[in-house]
């Protein structure tokens, strides 16, 4: 897992915005870099 300061994360998100990424895409890319998974809810969990 790579460590990033909050300033580095902010710069990354700004660059993603300049590239035209959506907010969700930018966060997913950031999370991939720092090594955490985006939580997924299955349809089964929502139905219960």
Average predicted local confidence, pLDDT: 84
Give the overall shape: flat
Count of strand segments: 0
- Give the topology string: H per helix, E per strand: HHH
Proportion of residues in β-strands: under 5%
Task: Kindly state the percentage of residues in helix.
Answer: 55-70%
Largest sheet: none
Note the gap between the termini.
34 Å
Radius of gyration computed on alpha carbons: 14 Å
User: Which structural class do the helices and strands define?
Assistant: mainly alpha
Count of helical regions: 3
Q: Could you name the ranges where pLDDT drops below 50 across 5 or more consecutive residues?
A: none
Explain briefly what this protein structure is.
With 48 residues, the protein is mainly α. The chain contains 3 helices and no strands.
């Amino acid at each position: 897992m790579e460590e990033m300061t909050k300033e580095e994360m902010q710069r990354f998100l700004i660059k993603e915005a300049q590239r035209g990424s959506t907010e969700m895409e930018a966060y997913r890319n950031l999370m991939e870099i720092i090594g955490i998974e985006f939580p997924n809810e299955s349809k089964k969990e929502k139905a219960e």
